[in-house]
Each structure stands twice: as C-alpha cells, then as structure tokens.
Design goal:
- The protein has about 70 residues and is mainly alpha-helical.
- The protein is rod-shaped and about 75 Å long.
- It is about 50% helix and about 0% strand.
- The chain has a domain of about 30 residues.
Length: about 70
C-alpha cells in the first residue's frame, strides 16, 4: 500500500499582522509633507492587502492538504 502525504509551508504566525498604523497626523503646513503622508498611507494599505491575500492563499493550501490527507474510507 502506498500512501501519499501532502504538506504545505507553515510560516511564523507573527507574520499574519502588521504593526498598527498610527493616526494620520494633522499637517500644519507644507504640501510636500501632505503628499508624503498620503503616499505612506497608500503604501500601508497596499502592504496590508497583499499580506492578507498571501495568508488567504496559505490557509487555502493548508485546507486542501488537510482534505487530501484525510484517511480513505
């Protein structure tokens, strides 16, 4: 009898979340500072969405492997 066993990578759980984003500061002056803050906020949103999708993909792979590894009846 040959039994295949499916495995998937299991990254460190601490990678699931990013540090909390601080509140957007009030800009007193300087359009360049305002643009910088906007760009940093957009960067954070992009990173958070990619991180979330990466973990969704990993969770899906884990579920598929668990399903494939179930004992046959």
């Amino acid at each position: 009898m040959v039994r295949e066993n499916y495995i998937v990578a299991t990254p460190d759980e601490s990678l699931r979340t990013c540090i909390p984003r601080p509140a957007r500061p009030t800009v007193q002056s300087g359009p360049d500072v305002s643009v910088l803050i906007t760009n940093l906020d957009e960067r954070g949103e992009d990173c958070a969405s990619k991180l979330a999708r990466t973990w969704e993909s990993i969770d899906e792979a884990v579920a598929r492997a668990a399903n494939l590894n179930r004992p046959a009846n």
